[in-house]
From TrEMBL:
<dbReference type="Pfam" id="PF00145">
    <property type="entry name" value="DNA_methylase"/>
</dbReference>
<keyword id="KW-0489">Methyltransferase</keyword>
<keyword id="KW-0680">Restriction system</keyword>
<dbReference type="GO" id="GO:0003886">
    <property type="term" value="F:DNA (cytosine-5-)-methyltransferase activity"/>
</dbReference>
<feature type="region of interest" description="Disordered">
    <location>
        <begin position="223"/>
        <end position="242"/>
    </location>
</feature>
<comment type="similarity">
    <text>Belongs to the class I-like SAM-binding methyltransferase superfamily. C5-methyltransferase family.</text>
</comment>
<keyword id="KW-0808">Transferase</keyword>
<dbReference type="GO" id="GO:0032259">
    <property type="term" value="P:methylation"/>
</dbReference>
<protein>
    <recommendedName>
        <fullName>DNA (cytosine-5-)-methyltransferase</fullName>
        <ecNumber>2.1.1.37</ecNumber>
    </recommendedName>
</protein>
<dbReference type="InterPro" id="IPR050390">
    <property type="entry name" value="C5-Methyltransferase"/>
</dbReference>
<keyword id="KW-0949">S-adenosyl-L-methionine</keyword>
<dbReference type="InterPro" id="IPR001525">
    <property type="entry name" value="C5_MeTfrase"/>
</dbReference>
<dbReference type="InterPro" id="IPR029063">
    <property type="entry name" value="SAM-dependent_MTases_sf"/>
</dbReference>
């Protein structure tokens, strides 16, 4: 339930974060006024990441499909259920059990609304569901169930580049609100400022160990990054994604074939393409420097790559907070 600490202060709202990953989305929503009573994820490293950064947050490390709200009474009547879900394939393209499990995860998230009865639902990472006709059956199911429960569905795609993130990262959003809050909801507008370039975001870090090519590199890395690709448990290690993504990174002077363990050293060739390290990947996502990740390189990179950039989460969260305050 929402609370106001002192007269004149902004209200705080309660939330449950499902498929919480490293906590980046919850971190952004925290800036917008949402305090999670419970975060749920089935990856042990991601749960450890959240736990070591926000000790006051309660983390449940289990599969959402096994989650029983009755064992967690604090879950009922929260203001918001939020989550960043795995992208689903269109029904005609489903070939593996994993594809079916991802769709079941989406449906479980929507069904949870009927059990917990929040004021609002926020699901992210579904651009295809929002935009493509191949997903019409899924969208109709979601919209009909939510309408039956008394919620109005809003959907859109937002690019993190419009919210201060140095990355062209398009995310699909589903937002549902109960009466009377839905009438006051509006999607956030972009900040109107130039999108930071990769050179602006990473230039200082490239020079951290004395690489003499850092300034020249930063000047030519004069565009936002392509979307950071975290990969999945079904494919390879820590690299910057498929061939097309690696080409886009190469145009920015980045070797995307793997990740580095550190910043480029002083003897790194001036005209060579450096690799990103884990911390720089987090910078591209606008995850704060003091947010510490748990796990080995590939695990950490997946946590970072799958995150919603916190500034985008904050922008959407503020739109929700405005609606819930009325």
């Amino acid at each position: 339930m929402s609370t106001v600490d002192e007269p004149g202060t902004a209200p705080r709202f309660s939330s449950i974060e499902i498929c919480s990953g490293s906590g980046a989305q919850a971190l952004g929503l925290e800036q917008a006024g949402f305090d999670p009573v419970l975060l749920i994820d089935n990856k042990a490293d991601a749960c450890r990441t959240i736990g070591q950064n926000r000790r006051r947050w309660k983390v449940l490390c289990e599969d959402l499909l096994a989650f029983d709200p009755s064992a967690h009474p604090q879950a009922y009547n929260v203001d918001l259920i939020s989550g960043g879900l795995p992208r689903i394939k269109a029904a005609a393209a489903v070939r593996r059990d994993q594809d079916i499990a991802e769709r079941e995860l989406l449906r479980a998230a929507v069904r949870l609304v009927g059990t917990i009865r929040p004021k609002a639902l926020l699901l992210e990472n579904l651009p295809e569901l929002v935009e493509k006709h191949e997903y019409a059956e899924d969208l109709d199911w979601i919209e009909n169930l939510l309408a039956h429960l008394g919620y109005t569905l809003h959907r859109t795609v937002l690019n993190a580049a419009g919210f201060g993130v140095p990355q062209n990262r398009r995310s699909g959003f589903l937002v549902a609100l109960a009466e009377p809050f839905q009438a006051s909801f509006a999607w956030p507008r972009t900040d109107g400022l130039p999108t930071p370039t990769v050179g602006e975001a990473l230039g200082a870090s490239m020079a951290a160990r004395g690489w003499p090519g850092a300034q020249r590199w930063a000047e030519q890395a004069d565009r936002p990054a392509p979307a950071l690709v975290g990969g999945s448990d079904r494919r390879g290690g820590a690299d910057l994604g498929p061939t097309g993504s690696k080409r886009a990174w190469a145009a920015l002077g980045i070797n995307g074939n793997s990740l580095s363990d550190d910043f480029p050293p002083a003897d790194f060739p001036v005209d060579a393409h450096p690799r990103l390290n884990i911390r720089q990947a987090a910078m591209i996502q606008c995850i704060p420097e003091d947010w510490i990740f748990f796990g080995r390189k590939t695990s950490v990179y997946r946590q970072i790559g799958h995150s919603m950039p916190p500034p985008l989460a904050t922008a959407v969260g503020r739109s929700l907070a405005t609606a819930l305050s009325r």
